[in-house]
Structures are given as C-alpha cells and as structure tokens.
Amino acid sequence: MLETAVCKVFCSEFGYRTVNDALQVMGGESYMTENHVERAWRDSRINIIVEGANEVMHSFIFAYGSKQLGEWMLGIKKNPAKHLGSAMQIGSELFLGVRRPLPSFTSTDPRLNGMMHELMMRVREFSHQVKLMFKEWEDKLVTEQPIQARLSMCAIYIHAMTCSLAKLDSHIRNGLSGEKLAYEMSVVEHLCSMFGLAIEEEVRALRTNADVSMKRAADAVLKHIDSLPNIDFAIPERTMDMKARGTGAKLNPVNEEAIPHFGAGSVFHGDVIKRAQPQRA
Q: Which of 37, 101, 234, 266 is the most exposed place for a label (fewest CB within 10 A)?
C-alpha cells in the first residue's frame, strides 16, 4: 500500500509538471485545440485528484510509513529501563544529534558509487529528521499535515532516486554501454542532484516555514466565509454541507448552456480529433 501511494503521488505530480512544462516550451501554439499537448495537459490534471487526492495521500504515506518507528519510540519513552540500550541510542540521536552509520550498499556497479553514497546519506538524514519530528511534536504530529507532507515528499524523492539507480544498475548489468549508457547516466545523475536539493528544502521547511500565520489566515478565511449569505452563491444540491442545501442562489441560477458537460467534448479517434460543435442561436 505504501509503495502504491508513493508511486501514485510521484507519477501524477511529475506527470502533470512534465506536460505543463511542455505547454510552456511550445508557447501559445500549445494552447490550440488542434495540438494534442493541450488535451494531455487537461487530462493529466485530474490525476492529482482522483484515486485519493495527493494531499490526503501525503498524510497516508507519513502515517503508514512511520507507524512502526513511532510505536517503537513511544514504547521506549514509556519504559526506558526495559529498553535501556535502545533508550541510550535514541537519546543520543535526539538530544546530542548523533547520526547512525550510513546504510551499506555492495552490489551496485562501481560507476554508481557516488550517487549511491549520496542516496545513503539522504536515507540516514531522513530517518533522523523523522525521529526529531516525533520528539518535537509528539502526539500533535498526527494533525500536523504540513509537517507530514514535507516528510512524505522526502520519502517520495528517496524512493524515486532508489528506483532510478536500481533501473540504471540493471541496464548496466544487461550490457548497456557507449552513448546510451552516457545518456542514462546523465539523466539519473541530474535526477539525484535535483531531488537531493528538493529534500534539503523540505527538511529546512520543517523548522523555517509560515505554518503559524497560514493557520491563522485559514481560520480567519473560514470565519469570514461563514458570515457570507448563501443566497449570493450557487451551491450545488449535492453539497456535503446539509445546512447549505436549498439555501443558495435561486433567483439567478447558473446558466450552464455554454458549458459542455462530460461526454459532449472531444472524441479521439487515431490521429483525428472530432469535436462537438456548439449550437448557435
């Protein structure tokens, strides 16, 4: 479940970023409906929402991924005398900043040693930061979604680096060489460098962020919204807020005639795109 969630978030997020960048590179032409990239751009956006919105998936990745570690630390805290060796070890990490030895790797191609060493450093530091967050937030960490999202992103970046290096190592063992090897090496090297920097940003944001003012602003916005009359807004009758049903704008309902609904848009057949033509008055 955990790896599936990680892959869902990574593929949907970076799939959208990729096609969004393609739109930008192509320029104004990319926005024209006769070019397939605009359809790919529209279609890829839904992936960040469906099958579990990525914001929800971040909380799941953190909660499920850190469950065993959190329970282990809680058990030591409740009865340190019973787990004296572990208590001394975790205490030196949390209060003295001691890091554990780097995880070892022995079976990868020597040409990947530099990137593998950096990956092991990221794994060790990530583990250390998760423990520190449990120490600093304790039970409150369960509801601190911004912290959860940052730790989740670190795990996702590490997973992506690991998968990319594993695939490259497999290709090398299967005889990849020459220009093709140089190409894959350059791509994976850049991926590791880019995600390494991204991890550092997420770790820095664990302590340097605007979370406090964001929460105050969110509370103020919600309070302000509650003061607005429903009659000024179009509220779908399927809204989950039962109190709002039937109390929205009725005198000026939303005119949806110009909005093509699902099933009335474009239909793709091979290299030809046929589009439903709007009726003219």
A: 101
